C-alpha cells in the first residue's frame, strides 16, 4: 500500500524490466484491478529496490527525450533547409530552388533596371571618348615634330592627373574639372604609346588597326563573359589580380637591369607580355561587375569606371601590338 500510495504501480514483467503504470484513481477497487492485471507468477518488487529503480528510470526518461539547445537549433535548420517550398513559406522563408536561383543568378539580370542601363551607357561612352583622346595624342606625337619623346616621360607625367582624378569627389568637384583630368590622362597615355605605334606602322601599316580590332574583340568578349557569369563571381578575382599586377611591375623593373642577351630576359618579356594580357583581360570582367556593384550600393560615378576600363584597354592594346610585331618579324 505504501508503494502505490502515490498513484503509481510498479511490477516486474517477464522481460525483467521495471515498468511503471499510472493508475487513474486511488480507490481500492482501482488498486485491486491493477494488481489482478499482473500475472501471479511475478512477485512484487521490494519497496526500496523499487524506489531506486523508479528514480533511475524517471531520471533517464526525463532527459532522454530532451535535446540540448544547439542540437535543437540544428534540427530546426535542417527541417527548414529540406522542407518543401509551401512548408518554407509557412515558416517565413523561401524555397531552396529560389535560394539557388538568387545565389547563382547571372550578372546580366541586374541590367533590367533602366537606371543601371543608362549608367553603363555613360561609362562606356566616357571610356570611348578617352580612347579617342588617346588616339589623338598618339597621332599628334607621330605627326607634329618635337612631340615624339621617350614613353617613360609622358607615362610618368600621366600619373599626376590620374591620381588627382581618383582623389576628386563627384559631388563636390565640377564635371569640367574631372573631365579635363580624364582627358589629360588619356592624351598623355596616347603620347606614351606613340613611339610603339610609329615603329609598328613602319613595319606594317596594318599592325595598329589589327591590334586595335583584337583589343576591341577581347574587351567585348570579357564584358559578355562578366555579364553571363554569376553575380559577383568576378569580384573574387581582386586579390589574385592585384598580385599579378605586382608581378608585372617586378618584371618591368627587372627588365631594366637585365641584359637583353641573357637567358632571363626572354622569360621576363614573356611573363610581361602574355601574363599581362591575361591579367588585363580578367580586369575587364572584374571592373565590369565592380561598376554594377558600385551602382547598386549608391556609388554612381561613371568617370572612375571609365578610367579603369580605359587602363585595361590600353594594357591589352600594347600587348597585342607587341605580339603582332613579333609575328611580323618572323
Amino-to-carboxy terminus distance: 112 Å
Largest sheet: 2 strands, antiparallel
How is the quaternary structure best described?
single chain
- Beta-strand content bin: under 5%
| Number of helices in the DSSP assignment | 13
SSE order = EEHHHHHHHHHHHHH
Explain what this protein looks like in three dimensions:
There is one protein chain. The N and C termini lie far apart (112 Å). Helices cover 70% and strands 3% of the residues. Helix 9 runs parallel beside helix 13, helix 10 packs across helix 13 and helix 11 runs antiparallel to helix 12. The chain has 330 residues and is mainly alpha-helical. The longest helix has 33 residues.
Task: Using brief descriptors, characterize the structure shown.
disordered N terminus; globular; 3% strand; mainly alpha; 70% helix; 330 residues
